Structures are given as structure tokens and as C-alpha cells.
Amino acid sequence: MTPSFSICVYCGSRPGERPEFTEVAQAVGQWIGERGGQLVYGGGRTGLMGTVAQATRAAGGRVVGIIPKALVDKELANRQSDELHVVDTMHERKAMMGERADAFIALPGGIGTLEELFEIWTWRQLGYHDKPVGILNVDGYYDALLAFLAHSVREGFMGEWQMDLVRTGDDSTALLEALVEESRRHPRGNKLAEVL
Known about the structure:
By secondary structure, the chain is α/β, with parallel strands linked by helices.
């Protein structure tokens, strides 16, 4: 069965210090699964990554994991994924995640999550794709980052139009609904496979 949508979730390979982080990862996975969607993610079983994948699958969704060879053991590759792609490099991982998803959402995470978020946001700015991107600001986790980005706009290194390319919110259901709805207004095809 073809999934009704495909959303890439960027999140931590650790659970973080607050139970709210795990709870929202479970809620996001459940939302995707209950609506017949497909999760595209980093392919591991640890941390929030593992939580969102398990919740998606338990709710009837499809799971596509994409993981570099170097992380197969470290992040415990999820062999229960409907598709598990083991690739050579992080660049291949991110390019495939970008191609396979209709929309992107960042949950709490560390440097890897931030790097993936900023790269897919940059690709949208450059016109490599026009798929929606969201930041789920769980319990204020991204407050400081959003404040810094506003500072960057004030200092003239970014424009408001760049900020407008990313949706932010603290309600997982509302943000997911908005991202999926926006993705349906754009064709699934994109230039990522051609340029990356």
C-alpha cells in the first residue's frame, strides 16, 4: 500500500533529559502511523530516533531507515524497518532522506539534528526543493536557537523571507497537519536527485 504522505523526522539519537522529549517522539510517530503515513528517519533504534520509529510502526505506519555504515552498530540499526538502507556516507544519507520525504520536521536533538535541519533548510532556500520544513519547539527546547536566528536577521545576515521558509510550533499535531497539508500543494518531484 502506498503511504498517504512521507515525512522525514530529524531528532536525537539520545533521549534527552526530559520525559517530554520521549513523549512527543511517541506522539509524532503515532500521528504518522495512524494516518497511514511513512516515516523517513536516521535508521537507528536509540534515543528519540528509536522511539519515533517504534511508535510509527506500532500505529500501522511505514518506516524507512537510512543509516551510514559507520553508525550501524553505534546507533543500533533498526532491522525492523520496512526499508533499511545502509549507505556509505552521511551525505548519501541526507540526500536520500531528502528525496524520500514530502516534508521535514525537527524534534529535539543535538549537533546532528541541527546539521540536518539547517542543510534541508538551505537546500530549500537555494531552490533544490520546495518541501515544507518545521521545527517542533518542545517545552521551549529551541527558544534560544530561534532567538539567535532572529538576532541574525536583525544583524543583516538573514532575511525574513528565509525565516518564512520554516514553520515553528510547540503543538505536534498542529505542526504535522500544517506540514502535510502544505506538502500536498506541491508536486512530489524535486531536484534533489539531480543536484546532490
